[in-house]
Design a protein that fits this description.
CATH class: Mainly Beta
Shape: globular
InterPro entries: B30.2/SPRY, B30.2/SPRY_sf, Butyrophylin_SPRY, ConA-like_dom_sf, E3_ligase_FN3/SPRY, SPRY_dom
Distance between the termini: 55 Å
Strand order of the largest sheet: 1-10-3-4-5-6
CATH topology: Jelly Rolls
Organism: Lates calcarifer (Barramundi)
Order of helices and strands: HEEEEEEEEEEEH
Structural class: mainly beta
GO cellular component, one term: microtubule
Number of strands: 11
CATH architecture: Sandwich
GO molecular function, one term: microtubule binding
Protein name: Probable E3 ubiquitin-protein ligase MID2
Length: about 190
């Protein structure tokens, strides 16, 4: 019994997190519909991966290295998006301190934003098959997650622009609905 008490005490001390390696966490709610926005305060962290994953995603594998997870990541001065083992470099400011994440499950998209500068970074188009959960992997420093946030105005503008570009590429015209005027929605 003493050994268990000792390990319990040790597990809640800062020393628990002082080693090398990565630390991962997943949200406690699986998302299977709707539009959800959260932000991650990145502080001084220069090595992380933030995104979503299916419950079936391998636990002992980096997020984005499999077909069950999608992430935006930073490794020192390189920013990339990753899914199914494929990485693509993306442009983001080295001063990125607040990452916005927009999951629009019903419209099959996961978008990342520089929330401080109101800039779109990348959007994954995903045909979701199962519920997903937010995921966070950190290799250095720490991050803070702000959940339950309303979708900011700049996200609606970027989402509209992206949707318009996609429709133009497909040869479709965008029509405004009089019923949506002034309403904040995910696109």
């Amino acid at each position: 019994m003493e050994k268990d008490e000792s390990s319990l005490k040790k597990s809640h001390t800062p020393e628990r997190f002082s080693g090398t390696g990565s630390y991962g966490a997943a949200g406690n709610v699986f998302i299977d519909s709707g539009c959800h926005y959260w932000e991650v305060l990145l502080g001084a962290s220069t090595w992380y991966a933030i995104g979503v994953a299916y419950k079936s995603a391998p636990k002992n594998e980096w997020s984005g290295k499999n077909s069950s997870s999608w992430v935006f990541s930073r490794c020192n001065n390189n920013f990339m998006v990753r899914h199914d083992g494929k990485e693509m470099l993306v442009e983001a400011s080295l001063q990125l301190r607040r990452l916005g994440v927009l999951l629009d499950y019903d419209n099959n998209s996961l978008s990342f934003y520089d929330a401080m500068n109101s800039q779109h970074i990348h959007t994954f188009e995903i045909s979701f098959l199962l519920p997903v959960v937010p995921t966070f992997m950190i290799w250095n420093k720490s991050v803070m997650i702000l959940s339950g946030l309303p979708v900011p105005d700049f996200v609606d503008g970027v989402a509209s622009d992206l949707q318009e570009q996609q429709q133009q590429q497909m040869g479709l015209c965008r029509q405004e609905s009089p019923y949506l005027t002034g309403m904040k929605t995910c696109h």
